[in-house]
Design brief:
Chain lengths: 366, 294
């Protein structure tokens, strides 16, 4: 990706509020037409990053470019970005059409063009015929669509979305996620989406930046974030995982051996690691096989079923392995009855490539 | 079935009792201290006044006199005009104050608010007399003007229209500021940001978003200040004297100087009816305005 194709580019951006460093030396670029998510727990700095892009906060240091132009000196109303606010911020004293037309009126466009563009924006969000409705007469989902149309009608270089789906119930939220994705594909605008909901980020994004404590923990494609987390935080925050603390006892070649308690696990580190490295082994519950091990399965642990939780599509087993600890294991419910019972001994198995090895910098607290 | 019916009846009775407990005291208060006195005034206004005596004999003479003698129409019009002028001054003075407290003041908000509230703890009489001292011939204002050499002779402020207007604006300004502050305060901060995000500078954000959304507060403030100005008694009495008499002063003099309660009553009732008609029109216009805004 060359620099000219980047719609948003942050270089060593930091932001402090008094003594608090909310954003700490963050750099990333968002490509044209990309659906990019800033994902992290509340208070991690993701919203501050977005507010700096939109111009409501100024970086303490670092440079911020939009479409290759440094925007440091531009107030929000001059920036080629538009925002869908967390609480939507629809103007309550205006109709749907007046809300959407507002931004175009600020550009002093001719009335006919405003009317035309408002019309097609309403069509884009499937709200044709709603122009004269008052905001108070709309449902939650319809309000979302108006807020999106109002921002997109300005044809921004970047559309910023600040957790706009938070207030919706689950069903509607999932529907709106797909809608947002459809709209984004249809118009090809760059979306920067802020959320604390990892499922939401996974559903919609091309790439995700996982933010924690004001820093980027990992910036990657959705599948890489899930399959190859680089830090314990990322492994734990995106999806669910078993984290096993251990030490590399055998290195060399493609596979290495990690000692976890009394167990010896075969793993496949992404990069060669020296012996005696302290590591965390991240093992997703669905990657573990429960039951009679297949002959080629490299890792086997014997344990006892502690608890069983039926979750519809799959069943979650908690298995106690002596000398290692408790492990969560998911089994797809291909057949109606759960095949294992609590208190029974079981064997867990997985391939070396199923686990991810996360080296722990020495002295770093968990 | 019958047990159910009894239970339902009990619930209904309990609900009625709850309602009575809620609105009962207020209703009683209004009845004793407002409805009954208003009724007495209304009844007296149809009595005759013969040789300095109130005679319970029905007559329309009092009302005819209100409309026959141009003095009273003049006082009516003057009172209404004062009301409009005071509103016209208090709104542009009060709005920026409300806006400043709601938007700009952060740490000082409590102090500013206190400064706004403290006058309520001080009697209007005291505050109005303070103006009398400030505006008097040997008062602070004249002293400063003379010291600065702007004028040789003291300027006669008291017992003039400006003195009354200054006093009225001073006394009623908080009633303009507080409702406007309340409506600005409850506006979501995101709304102004959204306007800026959509390309509106500060001025256009104010004109298109902030101000229209504060209109309910503006309407309330204007109405409060107008009502209180039009019915004000103390300020025109202390700072204006007889030449600046407003409707309340005229009514007061009928009641307590000539003791013509029937005529005083007729003036009161006529003014009350005018006021009610005025507010019916006002609230109608405001509602229409709200519905047709943009």
């Amino acid at each position: 990706m060359t620099a000219s194709e980047l719609d948003v580019e942050l270089t060593h951006v930091s932001k402090s509020f008094g003594m608090v460093r909310a954003v700490d030396d963050v750099s990333f670029g968002v490509g044209r037409g990309e659906f990019f998510s800033l994902l992290g727990p509340s208070g991690c700095g993701k919203t501050t990053i977005m507010r700096m892009i939109s111009g409501f906060e100024a970086p303490t240091s670092g440079s911020l470019k939009i479409r290759g132009q440094d925007v440091a000196a531009q107030p929000p109303f001059r920036r080629p970005t538009n925002m869908v606010f967390q609480h939507l911020a629809l103007f309550p004293h205006m109709t749907v059409a007046q809300n959407i037309a507002f931004g175009l009126e600020m550009e002093r466009l001719p009335k006919a063009e405003i009317g035309r563009r408002v019309g097609s924006a309403l069509e884009l969000v499937h709200l044709a015929g709603f122009d004269r409705r008052r905001v108070s007469q709309l449902s939650g989902g319809q309000r979302q669509r108006v807020a999106i149309a109002r921002a997109l009608v300005k044809r921004p270089a970047v559309l910023l979305l600040d957790e706009p789906l938070g207030a919706l119930d689950l069903k509607l939220r999932e529907e709106m996620q797909l809608e947002l994705k459809r709209i984004q594909r249809e118009i090809g605008t760059t979306f920067v989406y802020v959320t604390h909901d990892q499922k939401e980020a996974i559903t919609m994004s091309d790439r995700i930046a996982v933010i924690n404590g004001g820093r980027i923990e990992q910036l990657d494609t959705v599948s890489a974030i899930y399959e190859r987390p680089r830090t314990a935080f990322v492994a734990g925050f995106i999806g669910e995982t078993n984290l096993l603390r251990g030490r590399l006892v055998e290195a060399g070649g493609e596979t290495a051996t990690v000692a976890v308690g009394e167990a010896r696990l075969a793993v496949r580190p992404e990069a060669p690691l020296p012996r005696d490295t302290e590591v965390l082994v991240s093992l997703r519950p669905e990657k573990i096989r429960l039951g009679p091990p297949l002959p080629e399965t490299a890792n086997r642990l014997d344990g006892t079923v502690e608890s069983i939780v039926y979750l519809g599509s799959h069943t979650r087993y908690r298995v106690q392995v002596p000398g290692v600890g408790g492990l969560d294991v998911d089994v797809q419910n291909a057949e109606p009855a759960a095949p294992h019972e609590a208190g029974r001994p079981v064997t867990l198995g997985w391939q070396p490539a199923a686990a991810v090895v996360i080296p722990q910098p020495s002295g770093r607290a968990e | 079935m019958s047990a159910d019916g009894t239970a339902a009846a009990t619930v209904a009775r309990r609900e009625r009792l709850k309602l009575a407990a809620h609105i009962g005291p207020g209703t009683l208060w209004l009845l004793v201290f407002f409805v009954v006195p208003a009724f007495i005034v209304l009844r007296t206004s149809f009595y005759s006044f013969v040789d300095g005596q109130i005679v319970p004999q029905f007559t329309l003479e009092n009302y005819l006199r209100v409309f026959r003698e141009p003095l009273y129409a003049e006082v009516f019009v003057k009172s209404l005009a004062y009301g409009l002028i005071v509103v016209a001054i208090a709104l542009p003075v009060g709005y920026p104050v409300a806006h400043f407290i709601a938007r700009k003041a952060r740490r000082n908000r409590e102090i500013l608010f206190l400064a706004l509230i403290i006058p309520f703890w001080t009697s209007i009489v005291v505050r109005t007399y303070a103006w009398k001292i400030l505006l008097g011939n040997s008062g602070l204002v004249n002293y400063l003007l003379q010291s600065a050499g702007i004028t040789d002779e003291p300027i006669r402020f008291l017992f003039s229209l400006p003195a009354v207007l200054i006093g009225l604006v001073h006394v009623f300004l908080p009633y303009m500021i507080l409702p406007i502050y309340a409506s600005l305060e409850k506006q979501e901060a995101e709304l102004e940001q959204a306007a800026q995000d959509l390309g509106a500078n500060r001025f256009r954000t104010f004109v298109r978003i902030t101000f229209p959304l504060s209109l309910p507060g503006v309407a309330t403030g204007c109405m409060l200040v107008f009502i209180m100005t039009v019915s004000s008694y103390l300020t025109p009495d202390i700072l204006g004297g007889p030449s600046q008499a407003m409707i309340s002063n005229v009514i007061q003099s009928e009641y307590f100087e000539t003791y013509n309660w029937p005529f005083g009553g007729a003036l009161s009732v006529t003014f009350l009816v005018f006021s009610l008609v005025f507010f019916a029109i006002y609230s109608r216009l405001i509602k229409l305005d709200g519905g047709a805004a943009h």
